[in-house]
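ingest -> validate -> predict -> emit
validate: passed (alphabet ok, no gaps, 219 aa)
predict: started
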Amino acid sequence: MDDAVIQLLVLAAIALFLVFRLKNVLGTRTGFEKPPAIQSGDDIPVRRDFEVIEGGPDQDITDHAEDGTETAKALAAMKAAEPGFVVTEFVAGARGAYEMILMAFENGDLSSVQPFLGEDVYEAFLSVIADREDKGLKIDANFIGVRETTLEDAAFDPVTNEGQVTIRFVGELTSVVRDAEGTIVEGNPNEIKKQRDIWTFAREMGAADPNWKLVATGG
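emit:
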């Protein structure tokens, strides 16, 4: 067997191995899964494996919060209540949820994201959308991407087992407001603007439902 054939066989074996690993990554759950009809590959996080040295800091936590802080302690309590919880996967899932929820709000249709919204946030979003419709206004938005995703804070209630994580997002999008005739009354379709939000997600750790809910918003 000549060298060229051997090289082709080696490359084929490597390709099969990479395909197998990719399938494993695509099967990872995050707690922010979309319903099957709207799930897309863009929202799938990359799983990392973290080794915790006995008596040492958990890198999965210290990648997002300074060791010894109240935020780090809350994240550690969440992981103790639910050993399968991975902070880095949560942040990646929150990033995908941010785009999904933000664009649903901009488009005026919350039906696909209602399971991910706390009752107060859902009612507040719905009120803004209704007011917009009453005025005959419509938003035409195009999401460009998330530029920053930073874990700002975390809290854990040992009585209810509820964990809360606050994330700061900086996204980029184009957005214009049109009246009933389709005339632009605000914004520029060719101008990319930054969208800054601070969102808090909550969930009962260890519960069967893997979905976190958006329970507070700010800027």
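The chain has one domain: 36-218.
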